[in-house]
Amino acid sequence: MRIEGKNYIAGTRSSAGTVVVHSVDATTGEALSYDFFQATPEEVNAAAEAAAAAYPVYRALPATRRAEFLEAIAAEIDALGDDFVAIVCRETALPAARIQGERGRTSGQMRLFAQVLRRGDFYGARIDRALPERKPLPRVDLRQCRLGVGPVAVFGASNFPLAFSTAGGDTAAALAAGCPVVFKAHSGHMATAECVADAIVRAAEKTGMPAGVFNMIYGNGVGEALVKHPAIQAVGFTGSLKGGRALCDMAAARPQPIPVFAEMSSINPVLVLPEALKQRGAAIAKELSGSVTMGCGQFCTNPGLIVGLRSAEFSAFLEAFAAAMADQGPQTMLNPGTLKSYEKGLAALHAHPKVKHLAGQQQEGNQARPQLFQADVSLLLEGDELLQEEVFGPTTVVVEVADPAELVRALHGLHGQLTATLLAEPADLTAFAALVPVLEQKAGRLLLNGYPTGVEVCDAMVHGGPYPATSDARGTSVGTLAIDRFLRPVCYQNYPDALLPDALKNANPLGIQRLVDGQPSREAL
């Protein structure tokens, strides 16, 4: 595949700058033979302005036209062949089977959002018809639906080079909402980003979309100018707490503040309850070790904290868990920067006087070695930040609590999470019923007898949670609810039928379900 390394602006390629950045082989560390041109300030501005110019045209298209665009993107992504898979593997060190599966997930979520557009419920249409005879005051005609907020800046994630990247969930949700996208390519897989961007551009051309509906820029330090550009109306981000918080602060400091929907940091606690340990402690130890080390621990839902109650069964589980973790081999991480961050996180755990190392070979070389630690419960009870910080990689920390009351206090000490898991039997669910309301306040997804690694793309999924898991707990970055982040309600008062959006017209030409005078209806008025 031919890689040009030029920025994407309004359907054309641009290389106005002289600074060149390189893609790297994740396994060997050597620079790949691809040159990428860092976007200049002028190019960042041009990309944002191109999205702004496309916005009124793209937003006004019937939802079915946008659905056709998303389906065309999906078809183009599915058509990317073995040479594309090989490029992704070189840039990320991820196996081909994982990339092929992620490619299917990426195209699948495009098609899922196309279904959302065709059924029309995303409009949230509400109609309160005029009541001119109402006493003491008449009511005017009021109609509400949701429209795309405007151009969206999307930042690619390192750990999912397809599903959370160029054509990933944020891009799919924004495009579905009627919002053109300016995508900031992740430095860890720029060639991958180019291949997918080409697929999006081809789909846009085939379906007659405005030229600026999708734009992409390369380079370091360009994100600040993008977030601060007045044309940008929202930001989608998946990455570190430090990076996400910086974007939130930039967006809040603008003359016109804008929302940042950032997924940032989560340790995803797993609570192993007594009856479950009695019945299947050995199996849980094996399964948990597989979840912790899956994909070299590079999932945002990786179980980073395991909590159990002091007992003979918990001690036996801990021994089996340590043995299972010790058997796990080293793996190559996404890039050298990720490995360096992992080593820094391990060093902090090793250095803490209330943390002891239970299993794992000494971290050295260019691969990540799985590790298991045990921390004193006082770190949670006293608000120590160490256990709150995600160590991105194949490691986890076990905490033992004395009794159910201490377990509840420890959970109250946790920050916001993407997931919280209960490994429990029916008797546990009765005895520990008080845990669920606490976990509901702490996490966006509650699991029972499963493991958090693995996020289904569907209508019901929530991949979000209270800060710092995400910057806005009211949304999700996976599943069809993700479209809500890039929509805002608009109310039309006493507008003539001809000037209303189709979703609000009397004839209901889209055939969507609407709330009419407080009652669900698909009927024409």
Automatic annotation (TrEMBL):
Gene3D superfamilies: Aldehyde Dehydrogenase, Chain A, domain 1 (3.40.605.10), Aldehyde Dehydrogenase, Chain A, domain 2 (3.40.309.10). Keywords: Oxidoreductase. Its EC number is 1.2.1.26. This is 2,5-dioxovalerate dehydrogenase. Belongs to the aldehyde dehydrogenase family. It catalyses: 2,5-dioxopentanoate + NADP(+) + H2O = 2-oxoglutarate + NADPH + 2 H(+); 2,5-dioxopentanoate + NAD(+) + H2O = 2-oxoglutarate + NADH + 2 H(+). It comes from the Bacteria. Pfam families: Aldedh (PF00171). Residues 23-454 form the Aldehyde dehydrogenase domain. Coiled coil: none annotated. InterPro entries: Ald_DH/histidinol_DH, Ald_DH_C, Ald_DH_N, Aldehyde_DH_dom, Aldehyde_DH_Superfamily, ALDH_KGSADH. It is an enzyme of class 1 (oxidoreductase). GO terms for molecular function: 2,5-dioxovalerate dehydrogenase (NADP+) activity. It comes from Azotobacter beijerinckii.
